[in-house]
Amino acid sequence: MNTLLTRTLTGILIVGVILAGLLIDSLAFFVVFLGIMVATQWEFYRILRRIKVRAQMLQGVVLGMAMFSLFFLVAIQALPVRFLVILLIFFPFVFIHEIYAQHNRPFHNIAYTFLGLIYIALPFSLLSFLVFDVHEKLQPVFTIDGKEDLLNFLLQPGYAIEYDPGIVLGIFILIWMYDTGAYLSGVLFGRHRLMPRISPKKTWEGVIGGAVAAVLTGVALTKVLHVLNGMEWQMIVFVVVVFGTLGDLAESLLKRRIGVKDSGRILPGHGGFLDRFDSFLFITPVVVALLVILQP
């Protein structure tokens, strides 16, 4: 009972922090998700020490923070998209570090450092493109006798930026409902193992139960969150079910290879940050790609 209570209280705290980061304002979004990203990336690099991989923890996290910040600034139109190439300037320093570090397996360290950026920092950084919507200003903000004030026009950007966390909020709700449905269905009806070699507890019955819960949640989101239409929400449901499950299995494969049960202990009853955001890391890039493709 104590374990269940601890897990429940921790889960409520996690949900509360995520909701606060999404619903307060764009600054809260930046601070909360940058913090979660740093904690997840640091945890990933740390557990690699168990298999004698010395990924560059500090350099990798700093690069991840730079990536998140640049994506944020580009999403709010504070910087043009071409400024993302700044990241390329820092990539050679990961190699240069190993030249002088004299480690036994330098290219393992380099590879896993970049893996932390691709696997963790990139999905978190892409969130900025889901929460900001840029519109052209159709009317000048200030006029004099029906004419635009030229100075004001020059000082005002030609676009309006709207912070709308609806899509990201919907994604997290779908993930939570899918996980809940999968857990309950697996406990009650689970008989057929999904992939026992990697994750012995996951069952096909759990996946089906989670999928049903996600589909019903997608229908509800269509009526509550009007940022996407019904078809688009159901496409995201498909991504959550398929890629969320694959993300979970990928992290299970990583832990099995390293020989740990949880990626960390910072979240009582839930393990580590990587344990809690494993499916999200696979879902976000696919959702961003789909929504970009579907744009008119």
Description:
- The protein is mainly α and 296 residues long.
- About 6% of the residues have low confidence.
- The chain has a two-stranded antiparallel sheet with strand order 1-4. Strands 2-3 form a two-stranded antiparallel sheet. Strands 5-6 form a two-stranded antiparallel ribbon.
- The longest helix is centred in the C-terminal third of the chain and has 29 residues.
- α9 runs antiparallel to α10.
- The protein has one domain.
- It has eleven helices and six strands.
Features:
two-stranded antiparallel ribbon, about 300 residues, 6 strands
Question: How are the secondary structure elements laid out?
Answer:
Elements: H1 2-23, H2 26-47, H3 57-75, H4 86-101, H5 106-126, H6 128-131, E1 132-136, E2 143-144, E3 147-148, H7 150-155, E4 159-163, H8 166-189, E5 193-195, E6 199-203, H9 204-224, H10 230-258, H11 273-294
Antiparallel strand pairs: 1-4, 2-3, 5-6
Helix pairs in contact: 1-2, 2-3, 2-5, 3-4, 3-5, 4-5, 5-11, 8-9, 8-10, 9-10, 10-11
Strand content: 5-15%
Quick check: average pLDDT? 86
Question: Largest beta sheet, briefly?
Answer: 2 strands, antiparallel
Number of strands: 6
What spatial form do the alpha-carbon principal axes imply? globular
Radius of gyration: 22 Å
Quaternary status:
single chain
Order the strands across the largest sheet as they lie in space: 1-4
